[in-house]
Every structure is written in C-alpha cells, then in structure tokens.
TrEMBL record:
<dbReference type="InterPro" id="IPR036138">
    <property type="entry name" value="PBP_dimer_sf"/>
</dbReference>
<dbReference type="InterPro" id="IPR050515">
    <property type="entry name" value="Beta-lactam/transpept"/>
</dbReference>
<keyword id="KW-0812">Transmembrane</keyword>
<dbReference type="GO" id="GO:0008658">
    <property type="term" value="F:penicillin binding"/>
</dbReference>
<keyword id="KW-0378">Hydrolase</keyword>
<dbReference type="GO" id="GO:0005886">
    <property type="term" value="C:plasma membrane"/>
</dbReference>
<dbReference type="InterPro" id="IPR005311">
    <property type="entry name" value="PBP_dimer"/>
</dbReference>
<keyword id="KW-0472">Membrane</keyword>
<dbReference type="Pfam" id="PF03717">
    <property type="entry name" value="PBP_dimer"/>
</dbReference>
<feature type="domain" description="Penicillin-binding protein dimerisation">
    <location>
        <begin position="71"/>
        <end position="188"/>
    </location>
</feature>
<dbReference type="Pfam" id="PF00905">
    <property type="entry name" value="Transpeptidase"/>
</dbReference>
<dbReference type="InterPro" id="IPR012338">
    <property type="entry name" value="Beta-lactam/transpept-like"/>
</dbReference>
<dbReference type="GO" id="GO:0071555">
    <property type="term" value="P:cell wall organization"/>
</dbReference>
<keyword id="KW-0121">Carboxypeptidase</keyword>
<keyword id="KW-0645">Protease</keyword>
<protein>
    <submittedName>
        <fullName>Penicillin-binding protein 2</fullName>
    </submittedName>
</protein>
<feature type="transmembrane region" description="Helical">
    <location>
        <begin position="30"/>
        <end position="55"/>
    </location>
</feature>
Length: 573
C-alpha cells in the first residue's frame, strides 16, 4: 500500500511539473507576442510619420548664412550711393497690462506720470491720449517706431508693462526729401506709390536684395530743388508747386519734386492727402511754354524760313466767334524772335495756322503728349488730348498752351528733345550706365534744335525770362501763365505759372521745369501772378546752386552766338 501510494504521488507530481512548465512556456510566448505586436505598432506609426513628413508635410526650410545676414528689404540709394531708404531693426512700444499678473495695478507709477515720462522721450506724443490708454487697462501699441536710444530711455522708466518688441522697419534717412519718388512701405511689407512699389520684387528677392537699387537722382540737386520750390511757393502763397531737373541726353531725372510733400517715415491723414504727384500725375494747360514747341515744329517743317518776317499783332484774331488776344499791346507787327520774347498769342496762332492742325498734332504726339508720361512711377496722368482731327481753332489755341493738358514731365521731355539736337527719349528714375541711354526717336532736325537754343536764350536775355538768367550759366527758357479751367469756362483769377528752361544754352545739358499752382499776387512778386514774376525767379536761384554739382561751372566768357538774331529784336545790336 505504501509503495502504491508513493508511486501515485510521484506520478501526480510529474504531471503537475509538466503543467507548470507548459504554463510558463505559454506565458513567455504570449509576452514575446505582445512585445512583437507593440514593436510592430510602434514601427508602423514611425513609418507612417516618416511617410507623412516626406509626402504631405513640406520639408523644413534651410537658410544659408549669407541669406540670414541679408537685410529684410534691399536698400535704395541716389546715383552717388547716398542712402534714401533702408531696412533696420527697430522697436515698438507695446502696453501689456498683464505683465505683472492679473492682480493689482499694471503700473508702478500713475498713468499720468508714465505718460509725462514718455512725452519727454517722444515730443510728438499726445500725452493726454496716452494717459487715458494706460488708465483704461487695454493692451495695445503706444508707438510703432522706436529707435534703440529711445528704447533705452523707455527701459529707464522702470515699468514692466511697457514692452519693446523688436520689429523690422523701413527708414528714410533723408526724411521728406524725394518722398514722391520713393513712396513708402505699408504694414504688409510691400511698397506703395513710388519706387518702393516699382522695385518691390528686387528689394525683397534674396537673390537681388543684397545690392542697393541706384536711382538717377542726386540728393544734392533734389534738396536744392525742393528748397527753392518751397521758398517760391510760400512767397506767393501758392497751393502747390512742382519741379524737375532732367538730363537732356540720357533722360535721367536728376531731381523731381511735388509740394506739399509727405514724410514716408510717418504716414498719416495729412501725408496721404499730399501723396498726389503734381509732376507725373496731374495734367495742366501749361500756357505759353508751348510756343517754342510750335515755332520749332514750323521751322522743322519749312513753314518758317525767314525769322525776320513780320506778323500783325495789333488786332485780335477772330476765329468762328472766338477772339485770340494778347495780354497787353505789343505793337503793330512782330517777327518770330520778338513774338517769343514778348509771348504773343496772336503771332503764335498765325504760325500754327500756317503750319496746319495735322502737322502740329503730329509733332506733339511724337513728343509723347498724347499718352501717359514715360517714367517708372505708377502714378502717371493721362493727357487731355482730342483724338479726332483738330479744328483750325483747336490748333491755334494749342499752339499757345490751351486745349491740351499734360504733366510737367511731358513738358520737360519735350524741351529736352527740342534742345538736345532733336531726339526725344523717355525719362527714367534709374541710373543709366555710360553709353546705355535709350536711343529715343528723332522729332526735330539738329539745325532746328540749334536755332531754338538761340531763341530760348533770347527770351532770357531780352524777354519774360530775364529773372531766370543766372550769370555765367547761359540759361534759356520760356514763361507760361495759363488760367485754370473751371465750371463755365476759365477762372480768370486762378493761374498755373510755369518756367521751362535749359542750361547752358551753348551746349544744353539739363532741362529745368518750375511750376506754381495758383500763385497769388504778393509783395514778393510785386503783386503780379504771372510766371515772369514767380516761376522764373525760382529757376534763376536754382541753377547757380545745382550747376556746379552737375559739372556746369559759371563762365561769363562763354555764351551761345546770337549775332545773327540780335538785329531782328527791337533795340538789338
């Protein structure tokens, strides 16, 4: 019994041991299977993530060290490398009322005291408005443009709630100078209005923004033009002024100004109102400045062959019920030089009548006066120009600057063609490399241009342009005083006064246009409103300032030869 019992017990133990081994083996296999499943799931998730990154999600952008060091927006300079617009890291002044937590006042000092401290740093700040905004507890910008030295002064106030986040900014170191040329950069980082808009792609593209974009203007000439225009405008209480200095051989704009100006560093409501460009966007009837163009067309076409021929100037011309008159009596007869010197509408109209409407219209169209001015700026005004055939009366009035309205830039390009040998070229605000000027198109014969240079010089020596005759610079030009149109006809007491000039007339290099919008008769202009008394003196003061900068030195021993024309002028020798 004992042996059988022992044998049975031994058998049961063996069975139990086998069962334990089998259970342990099964548990181990299950654990391995779980690990394999988990590993497989993890691997699948990783593979899925890699596939998503590679196929769906764009790869992270890489930037070279050179690109990282580039300015956020390229620099604009004048022709000599003087900076006009550049990007620089700036700060903004932000009020964060939660900077010290939600409990208690966000300011250590009172809002009035903090506002007073900020006013000391930023003199143009509205102290009362800032104090109200600080007291309101609302977050927001207190100022968008803060220079580094100003940021340091803000830190010294010791208010944690006054934060100075760093931002990318556009800075115009010359302030308001050349504002209508440059334009500005809006909050979206893109240029508006001027060359900032025109060159936006080049200024933001990493491939091109490292190199400054050189404009044609000279800051010295630009500053002088703006200064003299502003002075002339204030002297006669004009509502605006415009001016341009143009290289007659390349079409490069050396200076271009429209007043009143705006500050591209600070665009406000007043600045937005003054963004309108009077040089390229506003069209005017420019009056007697058209008379030399009419005479040039007649000489070029063979209508004028004898400058001594006399035209009646005593009686107004009656054309279809309309009477063409002169501003004052000029004698019974005038020849061509005398007609330009004294600015006779009657004689100019007779010349245009002999030339014919079709030929005058064709010449002005070749000078670009039937389309928007050629320049890179986006703001370019379309002329008031009758497309259909001109009537006899239309041609006669256009001959002395009425019936067609163009921009001052149109006039500058036309005068450049008239004095440079007869070649019209488009104006440009980009610096032109030597030998790469636009070929242009011939409008006048070289002989016609040479004769017109003599006649323009005579206007400054003997005629209405005497106040523009800067000694030694051989200035030539023509005045123009045109009534502005309004409801029911022309407004007889509202003028646009213009002087269109070139210098030096023995070898013209630059055209200068000075225009005043609605000048008044003041003591400074001897109570006269016409261009001889207000626009021409601007050129007379400007040319001696800019001539040496542009390589034209005064030389009283030189002048254009007028010996064959002097005997034709009453009192000439």
């Amino acid at each position: 019994m004992t042996a059988l019992t022992a044998s049975a017990a031994l058998g049961k133990g063996r069975v139990r041991l086998v069962n334990i081994k089998q259970h342990s083996l099964l548990t181990a296999r299950l654990r391995v299977l779980i690990i394999i499943v988990v590993f497989t799931l993890v691997a699948c998730a990783a593979l899925f993530r890699l596939a998503y990154i590679g196929i769906v999600q764009p790869a992270p952008q890489t930037r070279s060290m050179a690109e990282a060091l580039l300015p956020s927006r390229g620099e604009i300079t004048d022709r000599n490398g003087v900076p006009l617009a550049r990007a620089f890291p700036a700060y903004a002044l932000w009020y964060n009322p939660r900077a010290m937590g939600d409990d208690g006042s966000p300011l250590v000092k009172s809002p009035e005291e903090v506002a007073a401290r900020l006013k000391a740093i930023f003199p143009d700040l509205d102290e009362e408005d800032v104090a109200e905004r600080l007291a309101s507890g609302k977050a927001g910008y207190l100022r968008r443009r803060v220079l580094p030295e100003e940021a340091n002064q803000v830190h010294e106030i010791g208010e944690v709630a006054l934060e100075l986040p760093q931002e990318k900014d556009r800075y115009y170191p010359q302030g308001e100078m050349a504002a209508h040329i440059l334009g500005y950069v809006a909050a979206d980082g893109h240029g508006r209005v001027g060359m900032e808009q025109v060159l936006d792609k080049q200024l933001t593209d990493p491939a091109t923004r490292s190199a400054p974009q050189k404009l044609s203007i000279d800051t010295r000439v630009q500053g002088a033009l703006e200064d003299e225009l502003r002075r002339g405008m204030l002297m006669v209480d004009a509502v605006g002024a415009a001016g341009i200095v143009l290289d007659v051989d390349t079409g490069e704009v050396m200076a271009l100004a429209s007043l009143p100006e705006f500050d591209p560093n600070k665009i406000d409501a007043e600045g937005e109102k003054n963004m309108f460009n009077r040089v390229t966007n506003q069209v005017y009837e420019l009056g007697s400045t058209f008379k030399p163009l009419t005479v040039a067309a007649a000489i070029d076409d063979g209508v004028i062959t004898d400058l001594s021929r006399r035209y009646q100037s005593r009686k107004p011309l009656a054309i279809g019920g309309f009477h063409i008159k002169d501003s004052h009596p000029m004698g019974d007869t005038l020849n061509v030089p005398e007609a330009l010197i004294h600015s006779s509408n009657i004689v100019t109209a007779q010349i245009a009548d002999r030339l014919g409407a079709a030929r005058l219209k064709k010449t002005l169209a070749e000078l670009g006066m039937n389309e928007r001015p050629y320049i890179e700026l986006p703001a370019r005004g379309f002329p008031i120009w009758q497309k259909s055939d001109w009537s006899r009366l239309r041609a006669m009035t256009v001959s002395y600057g009425h019936g067609v309205a163009v921009t001052p830039l149109h006039l500058a390009s036309a005068y450049a063609a008239m004095v440079n040998g007869g070649i019209w070229r488009p104006a440009t605000l980009l610096k032109v490399k030597p030998g790469e000027a636009a070929r242009g198109r011939r409008v006048f014969k070289a002989s016609t241009s040479a004769r017109m240079n003599q006649l323009l010089r005579m206007v400054s020596v003997y005629g209405t342009g005497r106040s523009a005759d800067a000694p030694g610079f051989r200035v030539g030009g023509k005045t123009g005083s045109a009534e502005k149109p309004g409801k029911g006809g022309y407004r007889h007491h509202t003028l646009v006064s213009t002087f269109a000039a070139a210098f030096p007339m023995d070898k013209p290099r630059y055209v200068v246009i000075a225009m005043l919008d609605e000048p008044k008769g003041t003591q400074a202009s001897s109570y006269q409103r016409t261009a001889a008394w207000n626009a021409a003196p601007i050129v007379g003061r400007l040319v001696p300032r800019i001539g040496p900068m542009l390589g034209v030195k005064p030389d009283s021993s030189r002048d254009i030869d007028l010996s064959d024309l002097k005997p034709l002028v009453h009192g000439g020798e």
